[in-house]
Amino acid sequence: QVQLVESGGGLVQPGGSLRLSCAASGSSLSFYTMAWYRQAPGKQRELVAAITSGGSTNYSDSVKGRFTISRDNVKKTVYLQMNSLKSEDTAVYYCNAEILGVHRWGQGTQITVSS
Predict the structure, then answer these.
(1) CB of 114 within 8 A of CB of 18?
(2) pLDDT of 46-73, one tens digit each?
(3) pLDDT at residue 38, as a whole number
(4) Rounded to 5 degrees, what are φ and ψ at 71?
(5) Cα distances (Å, whole numbers) of residue 115 to 21, 29, 87, 109
(6) Please, what's the b/e burial string for 27-63 (b: 16 or more CB within 10 A of its CB; e: otherwise)?
(7) 32 HSE (CA, 13 A, CB side)
(8) pLDDT tens digits for 78-113?
(9) How confident is the model at residue 35 (pLDDT cuts 50, 70, 90)?
(10) Whole-number Å distance between alpha carbons of 96 and 104
């Protein structure tokens, strides 16, 4: 079973950038679809970006053109590069690994966008 640990969260000003990392252990990531979700206070968890084992990506409309998801299967790490951050990007961001309908989650990392 894969275990996921996110890092890279913090406080950033509007317009700034951050890069999140999700390090996996316990299993190869090669066959997993990896994704980032986020949950803002009082809202449901939502998909931010996903990348398949083959490298295909998709993004929510709210982050398209600003965020980039990538993966390094050798390092067993998934990244989320976030640029042009907005206050509405403030949330807890979760890494997710999915294979055959089974999901694994990280513990989450807080992103706060504020001046």
Answers:
(1) no
(2) 999 999 999 999 999 999 999 999 999 9
(3) 98
(4) -140, 150
(5) 24, 37, 9, 19
(6) eebeebbbbbbbeeeeeeeeebbbbeeeeeeebeeeb
(7) 28
(8) 999 999 999 999 999 999 999 999 999 999 999 999
(9) very high
(10) 6
